Amino acid sequence: MKNFSSWLIAMFAFMFWGFRLIGTVLNSIGIDFLFVPSNMAMEIALLFITFICICFMIKRRLLAALIYLVAHFMYYGPTFAGHFMQILDNTLPFESYMSVLFEFFALVLAIAALFDVLLDKNRKAHPTDSKTDWFYKNKDYDRKLDERADKNNYRTL
After folding, report:
1. Cβ neighbours for 81, distance < 8 A, ≥ 6 positions apart
2. What distance in Å separates the CA atoms of residue 123 and residue 34, rounded to the nearest whole number?
């Protein structure tokens, strides 16, 4: 993870995961929080899946980003679509707007994480490092060393 954007996506994903963890724990205790999980069992399973996927997304694994995207779209997608239709009909209660914001953020974060890993996959296959490429990918430098080594008689056989 060389990019600042990759670090930001990972930090936002961990912060959002922790925020959802706090919200789930407080909801299970019975304390009202900014959002209410729609399905407590699925939320707990999603918290475990999300934590594992974020750890592997930091290691730039494409499968983890895909699982993260699919899991979030399966959990947040239908409720977000329903809430969005209620917003268009102007029938959504005011208390549910915070849930819509969290659902939207979860979907956007999952899409951003997938695109970040997809775009970074090409850089991982063909890495470039300006500190070492001048030496390892410079054929002229190798040729100069070879010619100089042939002229010197430092070798003893």
Report:
1. none
2. 39
pTM of the model: 0.76
The whole-angstrom distance between residue 10's C-alpha and the CA centroid of its chain comes to 5
Rounded to 10°, the helix 62-89/97-125 angle is 150
Element (H, E) at 129: none
Residues 6+ apart with CB under 8 A from 47: 17, 20, 21, 24
Domain ranges of the chain: 4-127
Ramachandran angles phi, psi of 61, nearest 5° = -90, 125
> What's the confidence (pLDDT) of residue 155?
53
Structure tokens at 125: 């296959």
Cβ atoms within 10 A of the Cβ of 109, count? Answer: 19
